[in-house]
Every structure is written in structure tokens, then in C-alpha cells.
Amino acid sequence: MIREATTEALGSPARYLEVRPPAERRPPLLLVHGFNAWADLWRPNLEGLAAAGRRVVAVDLPVHGGTPPPARAADLSVGGFVRFLLEIQERLGLAGGDVVGHSFGGLLSARLALDHPARVRRLVLVSSAGLGLAVPLRTMLAFTRLVATTQLRGVDPERTRRYVLTYVCAARPDLDESLLPLIGAGWRDPVRRRALARLGLAFLAREADVRRELPRLGSRLMLLWGAEDRLLPVALGRRAARRVPGARLVVFERCGHMPNLEWPARFTEVVTGFLDEGAAASAAAEASTRT
């Protein structure tokens, strides 16, 4: 059962979703969503990922979903959001577990694993930012139009659906009607709009490019991409995989920027397999040190 709860991070309340199995036999898993998204986009995967005996937590990042902007404007940065994830790990007992990050959340998750290696056992980057800037101009213009129209006219679920199915997803997933109004809704609130705009500039900071450091992750890393991603093309993932000895790249055909929504069963199977493989190796290593 998916539970909704609130904790505190960066001096503000932080909303999260959680599935906690009766017997926790695997390391915990933290799911980190992307820019202009929220934790609920992981709902199709939460219970499946927890089925192997893994506690799974999906958090709303600051300025997203039910988590307000951080108390300090200085925390509207990649480094500030990493500090947020560190606090979430600490408060919820997730340190040393696995992390899956999507898009902007992938950049944050990579930064977390690189800067605090003891905090992340295995890492899955899904259609991740931080590996180069290659968003097609057509997609950027479409998103700008969606945001501007939302500010002027309010949230239109049907207009949002067209944007998601045209520019975000290549497959046609069953979109939760209750989630559609949330896309872009934050841009209507002046406080959140300013915070999101400032956060968008964080993509240009030096710490937002992890390409040169990524090889340090080695076999702890899996990259998962949609072959028809119109936001961050799969070529970025292929180049990143070539940089990292031992890393794994999985590409979903007929899939865009949201593999977890477009192919939820396969996504859950692939991610679970990678994480469980690492858990088995860790258990074997621990057993060998005791004999």
C-alpha cells in the first residue's frame, strides 16, 4: 500500500510517498523525479519495486508537488537540492541504499553519489540531465508555450495531455487524470514561478555537468533511456555509457522521456534486476569476509 507522509528538509516540510513491505530484505530505494514533476509520477512503479522486500520512497523535491521552496534562496541550486536529498536520507533512514533519478533528478542523484559515495550503493539514471545539453529547440518552444498559456488561462488538462503525448512520451501510457492538472501548475504561483525560474538557471552551473566525473561510479551505475526521447536524446546516454567502464546501458524501444510511465512493468523488472544483482553480490562479499 502506498502511504503519503511529510518530513522536514532544508527547514521546510517535504512530502513523500512510501511503500514499506512487511519484511525488508533489500537495501532501501529513493526515487527522485525531474524538473516540473512530482513524486506521484512514480506511482506505477512503487509497489512493484517494493515487491522483492525493498522499502521504496519517492519524494517531492523543493518547489515541486507538496514541497514548498526552501527557506533559503541559496538552496535553489544543484548543491542545495543535493543537501535536501542528504537530509531526506538521514531523516528516513535511506543512507547507503539505492537511488533512481529521472531527468533533473538524475543529475541530482549522480551528484549525490559522486560527492557522497557512501550514501549511494547503486545508482540508476533514467533519461538523465547532467550529461550534456541537447534539448531540441522545438521541444523547448512547446514547453514555453505550455507554461505561458498556463499562467494566462490556467491549467487545461487536455492541453497538457497533448503536450505530454507529443513531446514527452513516444508510447501512449495511461495518464492519471488527477495528475495532468499538476503539470505546469506551479508556474501560476508567483513565489513558485520565481523559484522554478531560478532553479532552471542551475542547469547552466558547472556542478550541473557530471560527464567527466561519471567514470568514478563504474559498475554501480545503470543508464536507462527511451530510444525516442525528445527532451534528452538517447545519444547522451550512449556517450555517457562509453565513458564509464562497467556501467550498463538499457534502451527501451518505442519509448520517450518517461520509461517508468510508458513501460512500467518492464521498467520495474529491469531496475529490480539491476538492484537485486548488486544486493546479491554485496551479500556474498559480506559472507566471504566472515569465513
Properties at a glance:
single chain, alpha/beta, 291 residues, disordered C terminus, eight-stranded mixed β-sheet
What does this structure look like?
- The C terminus is likely disordered.
- Helix 1 links the parallel strand 3 and strand 4.
- It contains nine helices and eight strands.
- With 291 residues, it is of the alpha/beta class.
- An eight-stranded mixed beta sheet has the order 1-2-4-3-5-6-7-8, sandwiched between helices.
Structural topology:
Blueprint: E1 3-9, E2 12-19, E3 29-32, H1 43-50, E4 56-59, H2 78-92, E5 97-102, H3 104-115, E6 120-126, H4 137-153, H5 157-168, H6 190-201, E7 221-226, H7 234-243, E8 248-252, H8 259-262, H9 264-290
Helix pairs in contact: 1-9, 2-3, 4-5
Q: Report on the biggest sheet.
A: 8 strands, mixed
Give me the count of strands: 8
**Continuous helix count:** 9
Radius of gyration, Cα only, in angstroms? 18 Å
Query: Which stretches are low in confidence, meaning pLDDT under 50 for 5 or more residues running?
Result: 284-291
Question: Which structural category fits the helices and strands?
Answer: alpha/beta
Strand order of the largest sheet: 1-2-4-3-5-6-7-8
Helical percentage? 40-55%
SSE succession:
EEEHEHEHEHHHEHEHH
**Global morphology:** globular
